[in-house]
């Protein structure tokens, strides 16, 4: 008996020693990895997550180009120039750059930090940062995915225009086509003649869209657009199906080519008659506008929406970085490149609008517009009067495709990252390969986009855009900033930066995170609430009540996950209500493991083994 007892004791001790040896050996193996993958493995092990090595960008430049490509989208071309001239011209640049440095750059740095440190997508990263607001991460995935389902419709229209721009004569150039209503068609902009439409407007309305009188009249599918929507999603799929390995190579073209076209158009446009008047109209400062609160709110909203805060994409893309990548440098590169592109686009757009005003002897104000009407109505009309129009039209629509595709890559990748982070092993048991998971995500996005390519689809598009990008986004943004900067805390955020970069963020970033950025986001949210207006299409069409209800449901599809996530966290946490609240705001992200070094005993033990 005594021998048996002694043997049992020795066996238990041996097991303990062996287990300790295996743990220390595993820790040394982790420290031999790159810092990023080592940290990811530690965090995964601590949370019982799969411990496969996470894929990474091939080069830092790929991450920078992908981030610039995502931030620089169609809004830089059709939103910023119009907003600038309506908000004081050159004077608008003052509040714009103030908001960029007080809100845009600090919050982008914040999202890069969260993504790169945790090496997780927005859902699981924010669940570690603040479990009570874990629903925020899921809300960012939902809003990005909803956005990508109709954003690709813009790519469909661009493909349609691109194919038609190779015709012997541009089809939107005259009123002698079967789709034109000859009695009210004008070969040029009609100015104050409200009963007339330009030939380019009729091409968009009657040929491209074949639009009905309202959302209540679906009118059937536009089969030409259906085929092009399939092509648009196929392009997206083949650019991202290998993850960041394929996306990182594609962005070398899609993120850089638009700049060649923009500068080529700029050089061409400034030489056109009337271009100077358009540029002056764009930049002429109206200093009195600086006294209007709405101008400052517009500047903050433009910075926020353009950079892409709270869509989850920046967190997702940063999660594929090496752990010690210099995200501070990348933050400034992405933010300033985005703003510079907006300003260059303003010169390109308004030089062309000035030219059109000169040709048709109209005020610039009668032609200037924003939104899809600018790139699918005004600019095609510009090309129809330009020298060498057959060259400029295809190049312009290829540029639009590149601008849109970069943003689309990032929004679709958010959903894929969420699936792989949370359910990777289980889903792979069904789909076998990640490429098939990406195919499923793209296929679902295609199906959800079909309502937009019906004859009444433009009304669905406008309704979705209004309630997704305007109503729910700012609420989501405020809750995200609240969870990270105020509940998780600036001190912890600073420790994350220090662990990755070797030094804490300076006082400017800490003050912005703690006070200025949350107040600015709250101000934008309050302003959005007080200035809410129902969705409209054009100047005359108002949506029926049932469509407004659908719009609010679209808004709730994303933000409902915030309270649901909080309730789930409180329900599943043990203890009294106060204890549950305390646990729910306690982060689970490991802030110390990256700075730990293996002990000398561990190294010796591993070497001996």
Keywords for this structure?
609 residues, mainly alpha, Amino acid/polyamine transporter I, 2 domains, two-stranded parallel sheet, two-stranded antiparallel ribbon, 25 helices, metal ion binding, symport, sodium, amino acid:sodium symporter activity, transmembrane
What does this structure look like?
The structure is a single chain. The protein has a two-stranded parallel ribbon with strand order 1-2. Strands 3-4 form a two-stranded antiparallel ribbon. The protein has 25 helices and 4 strands. Strand 3 and strand 4 form a beta hairpin. By secondary structure, the protein is mostly helical. Helix content is 71%, strand content 1%. Helix 10 runs antiparallel to helix 19. The protein folds into 2 domains: 37 residues, no CATH class; 509 residues, Amino acid/polyamine transporter I. The N terminus and C terminus are likely disordered.
Summarize it.
This protein has 609 residues and is mainly alpha-helical. It contains 25 helices and four strands. The strands form two sheets. Strands 1-2 form a two-stranded parallel ribbon.
Overall number of strands: 4
Supply Rg. Answer: 27 Å
Helical residue percent?
A: over 70%
Structural class: mainly alpha
Our count of helices gives: 25
Strand content: under 5%
Mean pLDDT: 84
What string gives the helices and strands in order?
HHHHHHHHEEHHHHHHHHHHHHHEEHHHH
Give the total of domains. 2
- What are the segments in which pLDDT stays under 50 over at least 5 consecutive residues? 1-37, 43-51, 593-609
Task: Give the strand order, joined by hyphens, for the main sheet.
Answer: 1-2
Just give the CATH class of the largest domain.
Mainly Alpha
Can you summarize the main beta sheet?
Answer: 2 strands, parallel
Distance between the termini: 34 Å
CATH topology value of the largest domain: Amino acid/polyamine transporter I
What CATH architecture label of the largest domain applies? Up-down Bundle
Shape: globular
Main location: membrane
GO biological process, one term: amino acid import across plasma membrane
Family: Belongs to the sodium:neurotransmitter symporter (SNF) (TC 2.A.22) family.
Subcellular location: Membrane
């Amino acid at each position: 008996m005594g021998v048996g007892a002694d043997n049992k004791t020795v066996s238990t001790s041996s097991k303990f020693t062996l287990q300790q040896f295996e743990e220390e050996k595993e820790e040394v193996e982790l420290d031999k990895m790159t810092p990023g993958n080592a940290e990811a493995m530690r965090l995964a092990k601590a949370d019982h997550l799969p411990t496969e090595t996470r894929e990474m960008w091939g080069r830092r430049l790929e991450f920078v180009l992908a981030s610039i490509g995502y931030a620089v989208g169609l809004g830089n071309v059709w939103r910023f120039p119009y907003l600038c001239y309506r908000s004081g011209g050159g004077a608008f640049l003052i509040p714009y750059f103030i908001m960029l440095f007080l809100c845009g750059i600090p919050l982008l740095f914040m999202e890069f930090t969260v993504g790169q440190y945790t090496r997780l997508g927005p859902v699981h990263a924010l669940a570690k940062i603040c479990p009570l607001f874990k629903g925020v991460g899921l809300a960012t995935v939902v809003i990005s995915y909803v956005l990508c389902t109709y954003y690709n419709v813009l790519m469909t229209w661009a493909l349609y225009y691109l194919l038609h721009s190779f015709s012997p004569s541009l089809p939107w150039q005259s009123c002698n086509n079967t789709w034109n209503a000859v009695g009210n068609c004008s070969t040029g902009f009609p100015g104050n003649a409200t009963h007339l439409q330009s030939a380019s407007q009729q091409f968009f309305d009657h040929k491209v869209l074949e639009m009905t009188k309202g959302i209540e009249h679906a009118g059937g599918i536009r089969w030409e657009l259906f085929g092009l929507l399939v092509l648009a999603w196929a392009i997206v799929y083949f650019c991202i199906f290998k993850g960041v390995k394929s996306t990182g190579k594609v962005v070398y073209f899609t993120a850089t080519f638009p700049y060649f076209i923009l500068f080529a158009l700029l050089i061409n446009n400034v030489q056109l008659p009337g271009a100077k008047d358009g540029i002056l109209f764009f930049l002429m400062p109206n200093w009195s506008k600086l006294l209007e609160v709405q101008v400052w709110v517009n500047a903050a909203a433009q910075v926020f929406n353009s950079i892409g805060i709270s869509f989850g994409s920046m967190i997702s893309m940063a999660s594929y970085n090496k752990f010690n990548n210099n995200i501070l440098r990348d933050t400034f590169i992405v933010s300033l490149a985005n703003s510079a592109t907006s300003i260059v686009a303003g010169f390109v757009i308004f030089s062309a609008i000035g030219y059109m005003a000169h040709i048709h002897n109209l005020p610039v104000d009668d032609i200037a517009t924003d939104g899809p009407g600018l790139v699918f109505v005004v600019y095609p009309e510009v090309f129809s009067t330009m020298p060498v129009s057959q060259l400029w039209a295809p190049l312009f629509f290829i540029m639009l495709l590149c601008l849109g595709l970069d943003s689309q890559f990032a929004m679709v990748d958010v959903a894929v990252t969420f699936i792989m982070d949370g359910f990777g092993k289980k889903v792979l048991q069904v789909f076998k390969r990640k490429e098939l998971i990406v195919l499923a995500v793209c296929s679902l996005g295609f199906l959800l986009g079909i309502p937009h390519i019906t004859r009444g689809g433009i009304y669905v598009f406008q309704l979705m855009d209004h309630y997704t990008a305007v109503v729910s986004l700012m609420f989501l943004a405020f809750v995200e900033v609240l969870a990270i900067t105020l509940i998780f805390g600036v001190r912890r955020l600073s420790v994350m930066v220090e662990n990755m970069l070797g030094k804490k963020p300076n006082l400017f970033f800490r003050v912005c995170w703690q006070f200025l950025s949350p107040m600015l986001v709250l101000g934008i949210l309050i302003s959005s609430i007080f200035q809410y207006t129902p969705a409209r299409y054009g100047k005359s069409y108002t949506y029926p009540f049932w469509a407004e209800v659908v719009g609010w449901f679209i808004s709730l599809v994303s933000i409902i996950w915030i309270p649901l996530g909080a309730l789930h966290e409180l329900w599943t946490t043990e203890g009294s209500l106060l204890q549950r609240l305390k646990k729910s705001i306690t982060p689970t992200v490991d802030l110390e493991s990256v700075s730990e070094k293996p002990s000398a005993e561990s190294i010796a033990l591993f070497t001996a083994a």
